[in-house]
Amino acid sequence: MKTKADKRAEAKAAKARAQAIQKRRQALAGAGAAVFVLALVVGLIVWVNHSSSRPSASTASAAASPSAAQPSATFPPVPAGADPALSTKPTVTAGTGNLTKLTTTTLIQGTGAPVRSGQTIAVNYVGATYADGKEFDSSWSRSEAFSFPIGAGRVIEGWDQGLIGVKVGSRVQLDIPADMAYGDNPSGGQPPGALRFIVDVLSAS
Questions:
Q1: Is residue 60 in a domain?
Q2: What single string gives the DSSP state of each residue in 12-49?
Q3: Domain range spanning residue 137?
Q4: Per-residue confidence of the chain (205 residues) as pLDDT tens digits?
Q5: Whether residues 40 and 100 fall in one domain
Q6: Strands 103-108 and 171-176: what pairing?
Q7: Burial degree of 155 (CB within 10 A; 0-12, 13-18, 19+)
Q8: What is the number of domains present in the chain?
Q9: Do 198 and 97 belong to one domain?
């Protein structure tokens, strides 16, 4: 028969074996977790590198469509048969003397129909102060023609009156006194005093 001492020794040995088995399991679990984390990190690095090597959706779209980077419409939209000079931005010079009367001077005569009040017209223009010829506004700087209903009070009076009767395809110089422009003391950042515009009439409908 086994003595109490033998039984205690066997129990102690069994407990030691159980502890050893538990330690091996913990070690294996820790190693497995480390391997999993390492695999996760490596996979993430590979995915990031793969993603960075591909063009983004916006880049791919721009490459597939040149119009995404450049306007599709040709600027300026010069009427068919019009003087090629309308494709070039004009230079505005200063006026002389005290301007008191609206004056329309034809620089290039168009061959289209005359502009009528109530029509919507498209124009290119350069605006400058009359006294020194300093440019303050231009459709050319935006690469976009300006459209508006003429005679409806949507623009300054000098435009509403000075462009009536101008033929489509023409380039005209408008010398506009202050009272038909923005006045001598305008608010909102408009230029004061008399103004000079060079306007290309591109269409009227």
A1: no
A2: HHHHHHHHHHHHHHHHHHHHHHHHHHHHHHHHHHHHHH
A3: 84-204
A4: 556 555 565 666 656 665 665 666 665 455 454 444 444 444 544 443 443 333 333 223 232 223 333 333 589 999 999 999 999 999 999 999 999 999 999 999 999 999 999 999 999 999 999 999 999 999 999 999 999 999 999 999 999 999 999 999 999 999 999 999 999 999 888 999 999 999 999 999 9
A5: no
A6: antiparallel
A7: middle
A8: 2
A9: yes
b/e map 37-76, b = 16+ CB within 10 Å: eeeeeeeeeeeeeeeeeeeeeeeeeeeeeeeeeeeeeeeb
Q: Which pair of tokens denotes residue 18?
A: 């159980």
Phi, psi of 42 (to 5 degrees): -60, -45
Residue 113 shares a structural domain with residue 28: no
Question: Is residue 140 located within the same domain as residue 46?
Answer: no
Structure pTM?
Answer: 0.65
- Is 113 within 8 Å of 167 (Cβ atoms)? yes
